[in-house]
Amino acid sequence: MQAFAAMASGSLVGLSLGLIGGGGSILAVPLLIYVVGMPSVHAAIGTSAVAVAASAAVSLIGHARARNVRWPCAIVFAIAGILGAAGGAQLGKMMDGSRLLALFGALMIIVGVVMLRPRRSGDDAGVKLDRATAPRLLPILAATGFGVGLLSGFFGIGGGFLIVPGLIGATAMPMLDAIGSSLVSVTLFGATTAASYAASGLVEWRIAGLFVLGGAAGGIIGLVAAGRLATQKRALTYVFSAIVISTGLYVVATSLMR
How far is CA 136 from CA 75, 127, 140, in A? Predict the structure, then answer.
């Protein structure tokens, strides 16, 4: 039953990612705790980080082939973020599980509200990081990357909902390129967090594998459905946002009652 629950939970995350293009990984930790039945909050975060990194790596390959990745900007953002993710993971492991879960629930509520706002795209299609633009772009890319990485490592999430607007704000690159470029950071942040938790014995590898397997299947279904429901994507985002917010409220309430 636990194996089935892990695959089903992974499928739900993959479905949401494929269907509306983001936000699904925020559900991974509560699904692992409340559906799969993992008793440790820290083990759920470590296991989730493995699943997030693997799923993002697969998506990155597709975006790279489509040339939607601004590699110099993405690499600078990711390197700074890795430092933040490593520090965030250490802080997360030091915090009491119930308090960490309550903070995670609060983050879910914030993510759900942010998802209700329309995404804004950048207007500089030709932006690139080179010697001429480095003095202007490097500081803001590094600072934003570190801050997002810190949150990603602390909560064991991909952080795409923060990375995409961070890249657009720093460089004004178009939305599609920001989404593709963000996957470099999501993959590396997740891998950094997963490595930190794995070193502490806080990753359930069998469950992580099943979760990723289910996520791949759900992602395929989501991509197919997204094409057929393209005109209803905003409505789907509203529904998903409501699910994230209500789940966040439940997580906060249950963690405070522990």
Answer: 16, 12, 8
**Unique residue bearing structure tokens 């479905």:** 15
Give per-residue pLDDT as tens, 138-163: 999 999 999 999 999 999 887 777 88
Contact of 99 with 258, CB cutoff 8 Å? no
Closest CA to 219 of 70, 57, 65, 109: 57
Instruction: Report how far apart, in Å, the C-alpha atoms of 247 and of each of 38, 107, 111, 148 are.
Output: 17, 11, 11, 23
Query: Cβ distance 131 to 73 under 8 Å?
Result: no
Alpha carbons 179 and 157: distance in angstroms, whole number: 16
Nearest to 53 by CA among 198, 237, 167, 176: 198
Question: Following DSSP, what letter does each residue of 97-123 receive, concatenated?
Answer: HHHHHHHHHHHHHHHHHHHTSPPPPPS
CB count within 10 Å of CB 118 equals 8
Per the document, the length of the chain is 258
Nearest to 77 by CA among 31, 142, 12: 142
Q: Is the pTM of this model over 0.70?
A: yes
Rounded CA-CA distance 214/36 in Å is 13
